[in-house]
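User: I'm putting together notes for a lab meeting next week and I want to include a structural view of one of the chains we've been expressing. I don't have a solved structure, so I'd like a prediction I can at least talk through. The sequence is below, exactly as it appears in our construct file.
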Amino acid sequence: QVQLVESGGGLVQTGGSLRLSCAASGRTFSSSNMGWFRQAPGKEREFVAAITWSGGGTYYADSIKGRFTVSRDNAKSMVYLQMNSLKPEDTAVYYCAAASSAGPLRRTVVSEPPDLRWGQGTQVTVSS
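Assistant: Thanks for the context. Below is the predicted structure for the 128-residue chain, given as structure tokens.
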């Protein structure tokens, strides 16, 4: 099992940047596909970005493509989300998630399968 703790959220102005971190513990982290999701007030949780267990493959939501970058450091058991050119509509609680099975990103992370493991979330607020 993988346990996840997010950090790095905060308040930033439009156009600013933040880097979110997700610290993972557990023996299976280095073999787990990982992802970031977000949930804005009054809205459903949505997929943001995903990365394969090796870091060799990534997948992004259209709404953040070109502005956000997902990466990982398996030696440190960390996953990151670099967020640039932030907009007020990026305001949300951001969650780190770990896949429970092997396979393509779309099936194991992007589709938000019921067996994803979740962190507690970190708040990102972008002021206009």
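A couple of points you could mention at the meeting. The first helix runs from residue 105 to 110. Residues 21 and 80 are 5 Å apart (CA to CA).

User: Perfect, that's what I needed.
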